[in-house]
Amino acid sequence: GRSPEGEERREPPQASVSNGGDEDSGRELVELKGIWNKNKYDVKFCLDSTGAELKQKIHSLTGLPPAMQKVMFKGLLPEEKTLREIKVTNGAKIMVVGSTINDVLAVNTPKEAAQQEVKAEENKKEPLCRQKQHRKVLDKGKPDDVMPSVKGVQERLPTVPLSGMYNKSGGKVRLTFKLEQDQLWIGTKERTEKLPMGSIKNVVSEPIEGHEDYHMMAFQLGPTEASYYWVYWVPTQYVDAIKDTVLGKWQYF
Questions:
Q1: Where is the composition biased (Basic and acidic residues) (predicted)?
Q2: Which among 67, 195, 229, 252 is placed 20 to 30 Å from 89, CA to CA?
Q3: Which of 69, 104, 139 is the last residue of a domain?
Q4: CA distances from 238 to 30, 90, 203 (A)
């Protein structure tokens, strides 16, 4: 009665060896580190398998269909070549790029996703009026001769210069719109800059926190943001008219 039992005890190890042999005997395995979507996968894979077979293996690990995978190893992994042919070695990093069907459905289009990210980024930025360079001026408070503001109303530009504002060095500044000459005159105590409207690349503005009926406004005089000329305490009712006038959208009332 002992001998069948003995045989039974001996057989399972042999079976498992032969099973293993069917799969791996004579096949050299290589250990890979797969990285997809910030997840890491340790993969043992046969060196004589092709890139296409590796994609199937990645599919079984990640759920990412082979057609949607970009597998990178020193460039794009060729599907028809074996890992041995492209000289994959132990410990090699394999980068996988791609989205599952669900990811794709969740994001309507990459462009929209990118735009949403940009928007989110912008929203994260602190309001301009909290930034140090602007605080310096705003903390002085409103100029004594600040022009009255009218909330919730858009008015066209007055015929007199807009005055009672500060520039970024905290000096008094006034804006004169010379429509017949198509110029904006920025006047300070020291001098008056006469700028052709066409030379102003952009106008940005933002309400001043706590004093939303006044804006801080910048005229972009050169190619980058470094060329912004800041003006503080612009009455809110003139903001749109200033932008439209400077950027060439004429308003007829």
A1: 1-12
A2: 67
A3: 104
A4: 70, 68, 13
How far apart, in whole angstroms, are the C-alpha atoms of residue 63 and residue 75? 23
- Cβ atoms of 214 and 239 within 8 Å: the answer is no
The angle at the Cα of 61, spanning 55 to 66, to the nearest 5 degrees, equals 30
pLDDT tens digits for 56-105?
999 988 888 888 888 888 888 888 999 999 899 899 999 898 877 666 66
Instruction: Assess whether 141 and 236 both reside in one domain.
Output: yes
Distance CA 97, CA 188 (A): 57
Query: Strands of 39-46's sheet, edge to edge?
Result: 39-46, 29-36, 92-97, 70-72
Which residues, 6+ apart, have CB-to-CB distance to 179 below 8 Å?
245
> Do residues 151 and 83 both lie within one domain?
no
Which residues constitute the domain of residue 237? 128-247
Q: What is the pTM of this model?
A: 0.49
> Looking at the domain assignment, is residue 20 inside a domain?
no
User: What does the DSSP assignment read for 38-65?
Assistant: TEEEEEEEETTSBHHHHHHHHHHHH---
Query: How many residues in the chain?
Result: 253
At 21-56, the pLDDT tens digits run 344 446 889 999 988 888 888 889 999 999 999 999
Cβ neighbours of residue 85 closer than 8 Å, sequence gap 6 or more? none
Note the Cα 73 to chain centre separation in Å: 27
Q: Are residues 195 and 236 in the same domain?
A: yes
Evaluate whether residue 111 is within a structural domain: no
Q: Which two tokens stand for residue 23?
A: 């799969």
Using the structure block, give the residue that is written with the tokens 């503080």. 232
Residue 24 located in a structural domain: no
